[in-house]
Amino acid sequence: MSIALSLAGKVALITGGSRGIGAATVRLFHQAGARVVFSYQSAADRAAALVAECGGPEHTCAVQQDLATPEDGRALIQAAVDAFGTLDCLIVNHGVWPAHDQPIATMLDTQWRSTLSINLDSVFGLVQAGVVAMLANDRQVKGHIVLIASTAAQRGEAFHADYAASKGALLSLTKSLSSELAAQGIYANCVAPGWVATEMSAAALSDPVASKKATSLIPLGRVGSVEEIAGPVLFLCTPLAGFISGEIFNVNGGAVLVG
Prior knowledge:
The chain is α/β, with parallel strands linked by helices and about 260 residues long. The chain contains 9 helices and 7 strands; from the N terminus they run βαβαβαβαβααβαααβ. It has one domain: NAD(P)-binding Rossmann-like Domain (Rossmann fold). Strands 3-2-1-4-5-6-7 form a 7-stranded parallel beta sheet, sandwiched between helices.
């Protein structure tokens, strides 16, 4: 007997969808039968190629959208609803991780403000407008929200306090949203990846010393793949996860337990 992780008839919005974890999630949601809207900032060629790969504009829509303010987030939700008429799944995947080590004693206000604006302020606008759109759905399960955080949200990250603080806020936001919205038919969960092989982490993972340090804290002995993050995100939006809400879903090879 086969088990299908189907999202047929659903509409999903995935932020930061042109590359890395976002692109893998776009592909997987398309394969599961959803119509997908995804945002990108500047990679127009990649976005167009991904739309073509995932069935063309009848099935997948790319929206160029900066995400640094609540207004940006609200605008993207409206674009998704305009594209396919509704919203069932909101996957908040975009974010910035300044790759250079920055001691808190010398971190500039501009770095702190930029990281928090992208990683948190825009999320408020996305979630706020996304909830309004989902509540308009005429069914018992009105929607799913999955926020992408990080292991840094749970154990901190030296020299990256801005990033850790912004992602830590998503953990509390997840729990708050679940407490508020579960009774209204909206599920809210969080996926917290550890080290994953993406363009954002490539500089650190290509350095032998940094890479050895990172993998030494992962019991599985390796970094994750983007598909290994996208899979749990999809699962949390299916009926098989129908009794899961407010959960922090660690996908990090066991790293949080030892770091």
